[in-house]
Design goal:
Blueprint lengths: L1 H38 L6 H16 L14 H14 L3 H19 L4
Helix pairs in contact: 1-2
């Protein structure tokens, strides 16, 4: 049993290392083939591509892991969807029509397309 978990851990580390290598290469390639031509910026190296990735994750996304449901560990979002589904299933046809109409008017208000 220990061998299984050891092999699994080594496999996960190897996959993570391979993903980092591939990601750095993809970022470098995209930068050098798109931004250099379109914006006239300088070409970057592999290490600079990894640095840009880390900086962008820190500034815009962070490094928090995802929960099992894919919601960043905040499964309250998933539970809200389930609650809404149950509520929808328990509505009468008239309540559903009313709900749809309220959302249509709400969305038109946001888009600036009021009747």
């Amino acid at each position: 049993m220990k061998k299984f978990w050891l092999k699994r851990a080594i496999g996960m580390v190897a996959c993570a290392a391979l993903a980092i290598v591939a990601l750095g290469f993809v970022i470098m390639t995209l930068w050098n083939h798109i931004l250099v031509v379109v914006l006239g910026v300088k070409a970057i190296t592999y290490c600079q591509a990894l640095g840009i990735f880390v900086l962008s994750k820190l500034l815009f996304g962070g490094f928090r892991g995802k929960g099992r449901c894919g919601c960043g560990g905040n499964c309250g979002i998933r539970n809200k969807g389930m609650e809404l589904k149950e509520k929808w299933q328990n509505m009468t046809p008239e309540e559903r029509d009313n709900f749809k109409q309220n959302w249509r008017s709400h969305c038109r208000t946001w888009s600036g397309k009021e009747d």
